[in-house]
Write a structure and sequence with these properties.
- The protein is an alpha/beta fold and 394 residues long.
- It has twelve helices and ten strands.
- The protein has a ten-stranded mixed beta sheet with strand order 2-1-3-10-9-4-5-8-6-7, sandwiched between helices.
- Strand 9 and strand 10 form a beta hairpin.
- Helix 1 runs parallel beside helix 12 and helix 10 runs antiparallel to helix 11.
- About 2% of the residues have low confidence.
- The site of magnesium ion has 2 residues, from helix 9.
Length: 394
């Protein structure tokens, strides 16, 4: 019996609903294998801040850092929950873990499953074709425009009094000036890129031609940070001769992934570019309800659906739990590789198969995919498929 300690941070709004479906998947694994999970639920987020005056209880960060084998996060964001400095209440849970646990890679797979309409034209008109979209974007997660977020002067950013002029002079600008530095380091870029090349080895290449391809997305025609990023990419790539190298500027990349997503296999990019690109990526995979992610470092990781807390849908048991379930899939794969537990890697694959079967079947889908099923009904459906597969295999 191997036991893993999992911190469950449901957060706010629909995050709480989809977290229950993540927990159902963990329970299903536990019931059908010899793997056990000790789940510790930690309240956090904007609502928690309004209720208790804290984004999460003291000691929660340390628990995640020192005690948990892996972390799951639902979503953060509650209407009206703002810190005194104007920042999103609960934001320091996500951003604090990303930087505090040094989770330098935000890994965001973008895959269009059979049976799922993508959302480029209208609502549900465009149908899946084999191999249209199957790429993984790695977003640098601790540097760039987010690096100073926990430290910047909020007063200045909000234009509140007292206004302090920036330390740097910006000739030609007048009125109040706010700015966010975007530092990019060679070490931060290199470790992200190594993970990207290593992930490429585990995949089947780009859908269009099966070529193992790693694309560096930047704006090196304009910014210094991106020039460094690209030069690190060229250097690191020498260690991974099996991957074809590809380059794109972020603006052109937005166009290319919309027109020809099948060309892309693994993509590495900087923090804010990856934030933006993966929301477009979600459209290619059927919407935010399908987008899973892993915030991964060398020692710790947290897994979260990319969608937010969606206050207008909260409390209605209606949102799509698949982004959340696939985040658990990523957690199993990561834990399996980290702990050299082959069975857990296989369990990750079985979760993916269960999601794929459910979607292909097409009968019980949530509203965002054109169906009428509830969040928990879809979660139950996928869990029971998983239970069958686990019973068959183990
Ligand atoms: C994301 C989100 C976060 C980010 C927000 C909620 C801070 O948009 O995970 O993509 O900007 O990284
Ligand atoms: Mg985002």
């Amino acid at each position: 019996m191997s036991d893993y300690r999992i911190a469950i941070l449901p957060g706010d709004g629909t995050g709480r609903e989809v977290a229950l479906e993540a927990q159902r998947i963990l329970d299903t694994i536990e019931a059908n294998t010899n793997i056990g999970f000790e789940q510790t639920v930690i309240p956090c987020g904007g609502k928690n801040y309004l209720d208790t005056g804290e984004e999460w209880a003291e000691g929660s960060f340390e628990f995640c850092r020192d005690e948990a084998d892996a972390i799951y996060l639902g979503a953060i964001g509650y209407p009206g929950a703002t810190l005194d400095n104007g920042d999103l209440a609960g934001g320091s849970v996500i951003l604090g873990m990303r930087s505090g646990l040094d989770l330098y890679a935000n890994v965001r797979p973008i895959k269009l499953y059979e049976g799922v309409p993508h959302k480029i034209h209208g609502k549900f008109t465009q149908v899946w074709q084999p191999g249209m979209v199957d790429m993984t974007i790695l977003r640098e997660n601790t540097e760039g425009l987010y690096h100073s977020l926990l430290r910047r002067s909020a007063d200045r950013a909000l234009g509140r009094e007292p206004y302090e002029p920036p330390e740097l002079e910006f000739p030609g600008l007048s009125g109040e000036v706010a700015y966010d530095p975007r530092p990019i380091s060679s070490v931060g870029s290199e470790r992200l890129m190594r993970m990207g090349f290593e992930i490429a080895e585990t995949r089947n290449g780009a859908p269009v031609d099966g070529v193992q391809r790693v694309t560096c997305v930047d704006k090196s025609n304009v910014t210094r940070g991106c020039q460094l990023f690209r030069s690190v990419f060229e250097r690191v790539a020498l260690d991974y001769p099996k991957s074809e190298l590809d380059y794109s500027y972020i603006d052109a990349f937005m166009q290319w992934i919309t027109r020809s997503p099948e060309y892309y296999d693994v993509v590495v990019t900087s923090n804010m570019f990856g934030d933006i690109a993966t929301d477009l990526g979600a459209v290619l995979q059927g919407g935010m309800g399908m987008a899973a992610s892993g915030n991964i470092g060398d020692n710790q990781a947290f897994f979260e659906p990319v969608h937010g807390s969606a206050p207008k849908h909260a409390g209605q048991n209606k949102v799509n739990p698949i982004a959340s379930i696939n985040s658990v899939q990523m957690m199993m794969d990561w834990l399996g590789r980290k702990k050299s537990n082959e069975q857990m890697i296989q369990i990750g694959t079985l979760i993916d198969d269960s999601v794929a079967d459910h979607l292909k079947d097409g009968k019980n889908l949530t509203y965002d995919l054109g169906g009428k099923a509830s969040c928990s009904f879809v979660g139950e459906g996928i869990s029971s498929r998983l239970a069958e597969k686990l019973a068959e295999q183990f």
